[in-house]
Amino acid sequence: MRFDSASMRESNAPCRANESVVWEMFFLLCTTACAFSATSSLSTSAPRQERAHRLRLSADEINPGAVAGTNLRILEYPHPLLRAPNADVTEFDDELKQLTKEMFDIMYASRGVGLAAPQLGINKRLMVFNPEGDPKKWLSELVLCNPEIEEYSTSTALEEEGCLSFPGFTADVMRSQNIQVKWQGLNGKVKRKKLRGWEARIFQHEYDHLDGTLYVDRLGEGERSRVKCHLDDLIRSYEKESLAGPAAL
Fold it and tell me: Is 132 a catalytic residue?
């Protein structure tokens, strides 16, 4: 039976009013259920797709070694420059523009979404990121000089992260879901923005590097134990390269 005007005309006249009420209620319930189902589907599928995209980006990160157009290399844990103090950016010139270009080139070659200057042995408060991780989506690129976090949200989330200075594994890190930040652009002009979700997480991760904090410092006891073997491998590799001489580092 179809619910339309023709089927309603076939009904007996004495029952028409009651039947009309029943059908209207039925139609309302069906419409509400369908709308709820569609909304639920959108609200659950979108985060799942976004999380899958994030996990793929984290898992795909690599240390590319030499990258065309630059002599800079990604430093791996436990290189001491990853813990060294970082000075403010004071010169906003062509040299800075060239440096950030090379940082983006290395970041994309690494399949990453963010990179801080200390990871390249440059101890400046400078970082770049593109939450899309795609050089074709260059409009999403951000260059941040002397960044600051002005406000953290009380809401936090535990999510998986990777780091170019810790190749080969990822770990769960608790971070604020939303932050209010400010920074200077390539021209020295101060900018402010509220970052949420994935962008807020990238910012906090790279910002930690500028304070000499590494993402493994934020791991819980269980996660720290789980990745200990990876950290030990990185330490052994660094010590072996140290013995081989400065050129190997």
Answer: no
